[in-house]
Amino acid sequence: MKRLFNYKKYSEDNSDLVSHFAGIDEAQLCDHYITYGHRELRGVPEARVSMDLDGMLFSDAGYIYLAGWCDRRVFSTLTVSLRIGYMTYDFADLDPCWYQRDDVSNVLGDYSNPAGYILLLSIPPEELVLAPNVSIYINGIKQREEPLIRFLSVDRFLNEALGAVASLATRPAGGTFDQALKLSEAFGEVWQSYLVTQSFVPVFENRPLKSCQQSIIITLHRKFDMLLVQLSELAKFLTTHDAEVIVVGNDLIAPEEMRARVTAFCQIHDISIRLILCSGNSGFSAGNNHGAKVARGDTLIFMNPDIFPPEGDAEQALAFLSSDPGDALHGAMLYYGDGMLMHSGMYSVRDLAFDAKRGKSCNLLRVEHFGKGLSHRVDDNQDGLDKALAGVRQDILLVSAALWKVSKAEFDAIGGLSTDYIFAYYEDADFCLRWRDSGREIVLDSTSRWLHLEGVGKETPPAVRSFMWLNRAFYSRRFETSPLVVDTAQDLQLL
Amino acid sequence: MKYMTISLYHPRVMKGGAQYVAKDLHDAADADPDVEAVMLAGIDANMFPQYNKVGASITALPDSPREFILPGHAFNEFYHTVHDQRRTKALQRFFADHKPDVIHVHHSLWIGLELLEIARQVLPDVIILYTLHEYLPICYSRGQLFRYHENSICQDTSPDQCVKCFPERTADDFMLRRRVFKRAFEFVDHFISPSDYLRQRFITWGLPAEKISTIANGHQSMRPEKWMPTHSAKVNTFGFFGQYVDAKGIDVLLAAASIAAAEVADGQEIEVKIFGGNKAYASPEYVKRIDKFLEDAPDNLKVTEMGTYSRDNVFQLMNMIDWLVMPSIWPETFGLVVSEAWDARRPILSSRAGGLNGRTVDGINGYTFDPGSVSQLATLIVECAGNKPLWKKLSAGVRDELSLQEAWKQHKALSLTVANC
Questions:
Q1: What confidence tens digit (pLDDT) does each residue in A230-243 have?
Q2: Cross-chain Cβ contact B83/A265 below 8 Å
Q3: A326, A407 Cβ separation under 8 angstroms
Q4: Centroid of chain to Cα A342
Q5: CB A24: neighbour CB atoms within 10 A?
Q6: How far is B216 from B213, CA to CA, in rounded Å?
Q7: B209-222 per-residue burial string, b: 16 or more CB within 10 A, e: under 16
Q8: Are strands A116-122 and B237-241 parallel, antiparallel or unpaired?
Q9: Is the same domain home to B186 and B259?
Q10: Contact B85 A260 (CB under 8 A)
């Protein structure tokens, strides 16, 4: 084999180099081409056919989402230049989230290098000068020139950008773990910047208590359709015990209507209740943490809005609310609406996720539930319950935050729920593992049976799929070495 | 005895079967010297703003000192609750002021299930009666127990089956809905069903059998004294009275009439008169199907849409037909039209759907057929068309049903029985 450099053609096409090198020097020109020229796509008339920008989102806080593809044999690195009005913002040494795009690979013929890229860029707010006309250059090539860009608020940007990456969330986990970790960090930054802007405002209080024994914290997201039904079921307990309800509303659709209905409810049931609205969606953790912060009870009860005592058998369930948790974190037996066991506690499993094509594997954690699939019903006798509980391993037991009971002092001592998780999911397992790591006890109160009417069969929106995926990666990385997490092989023996 | 009637709508606000029954009973109670009657009608204030006074949750009905309106602005149509603080205050005060011995509730739509609890709180000893006018507590699909996607009566009301009519909801939603109704119904002392069929469906659903009695809807006869029934010259006019909505079976009647028209002797005509309102509520597919029947009807089948009717003129209109056809494919709770037809001594060709079953006796006052059976109805139409002796025999077999006065007596007796329990 013999390699020839066509220096004459290179010099004809690149007169700037001829003047730069003060003449035609084959060796200099060849060195330039190998070092710079081929990366600069000198002599490539249609550079854009090797690259494209599919999606872009801009936030008014300086976050920018860019997604597209490129032929990585042509472009081994990416640089981005944004011209916003009369300002230019250059981003070099970018480390995009690369991912496999079969539609691109089928055209390019390159199956070795993932061609899809996702970039989450950030312009510090103090540097950002907003202007509607934006041009986007990637590796010096103009990708878009938009005369009118809509800058999104951070929450909108976050939701839309999460929705835009949802296709990755449904792929085999082993092949996207690295991407999830990378994106969870990037999205996490956006999430935290959003979270600090959130505020909570009390909008109603009935029968205020200076202090009480129990504070039941119910955090709602958008809808409150089950709230009055739930309060009806709790009303008898609430009017006969030294207890308060704190409802925290995240991004409620019709807060005025909720308040009107709750106030009318209080005319019939004189319960102690406070309604607190968040300015946006602070997520499960921050919403509940705020409820805990303002709680006046010694005991905190975290209750999802879809938790109900069994029909005709409320007493045993409600007893859970008034008993002293001591220093332990307590959960209850949870059943589906049809009466079958949902679970008797949870545990976390460590799987080896893999991407054989890239010769990589990683630890990926999941949360499993004791008793799921057992033929045990909410109205079974003690014998049936004992059989269901036989498989519960106390040494790895976690309990779902759908219904928790814990002393306020202990909850505060551990720092509450982690707000590192975007919106929701995995924060309760995180809390339980931290709780146990600190030597504290977790108790599954098997004398208390509750229905958990979680939205079975409801479609998960794309943005939700994404933050579940990102949160799982974050949770996996944080607890992959935890001794409280069992391996896949151990899980095979658990039910 | 002080007897308070709480109804969905008032016939002066909007006409309809349930409000007529409630108002009739209220009037009968009002006419009873032993009884002091008061009526409160829940309405949708958004639909009838003329009855809404700003800030007032209970308003008077002009010229009716013992009849009141309860206008509502926000109604949770899934759980049938209202939860409005002004309204709650007004209701508490209304109950406390009137101190009824009996509160007879006729619906939950625009009344709100929490009213039952409010009434019990304010008046712990009050007797609460509740008439079940349709299947809404069981069935979110217009309270009809009819599966439009299968075109059949719903026999299994398990929550997962409800999802088939409402795929956007979950079985849990319907379990919770059932629970809300059952919880509210615990405040009711006794239920009244207008038919045994409806009673049985609610017992199956979970109401205790001993807490639910059947009392047919009383009928106020419009028939003049010494009036004699007559038929048309050809005894070939079949009439439909009712809502122009899908499950009422107008399509069944037209399909059967088309077949019958093709089968009757040459020169014989069949006429169908349709008296019905609310065509706007029929589905486009249903209207299209009806229109197709009308287009394709044989020459000897004459179909006329007669427009709406009211109970003020229904007796006269019944005399424009020879035979009443009740082709309902949903399980009718009672079938007020049957009472109206019998008041005019019209023989009835009735489906055996729900509460219709058992009212028409084959060969005595009419004939029956399986719900939705075009062929059975067509055979009956062929047999009846032009058959004067049969018409006279069946017309003579018609007997009056429960009168309004008798129905009131039964309600009064039930109230006393419950009070003494």
A1: 999 999 999 999 99
A2: yes
A3: yes
A4: 23
A5: 14
A6: 10
A7: eeebbbbbbbbeeb
A8: unpaired
A9: no
A10: yes
Chain B residues bordering chain A (beta-carbon distance below 8 Å) = 74, 78-79, 81-85, 87-89, 92, 114, 117-118, 121, 159, 163, 170-172, 175-176, 179-180, 182-183
Nearest CA in chain B to A455: B170
- Expressed as residue numbers, the domain containing A32 is 7-37
ipTM above 0.85, yes or no: no
Amino acid at A486: V
Rounded to whole angstroms, the maximal C-alpha distance in chain A is: 96
Residues with Cβ within 8 Å of residue A52, at least 6 apart in sequence: A68, A69, A70, A143
pLDDT in tens, A126-157: 999 999 999 999 988 899 999 999 999 999 99
Q: How many angstroms separate the CA atoms of B252 and B329, rounded?
A: 9
CATH number at residue B186: 3.40.50.2000
Both structure tokens of B20: 């007529």
The residue-averaged pLDDT of B109-116 equals 96
Query: Is A285 in the same domain as A137?
Result: no
Residue type, A21: F
Q: Is residue A43 part of a domain?
A: no
Cβ–Cβ under 8 Å, residues B341 and B360: no
In a domain, A42, yes or no: no
Ramachandran area for residue B145 (φ above 0: left; ψ -120 to 50: alpha; else beta):
left
Domain annotation covers residue B230: no
DSSP state letters, A90-103: EE-S---EEE--HH
| Both tokens assigned to A378 | 């909410």
Domain count, chain B: 2
A14 and A116 in a common domain = no
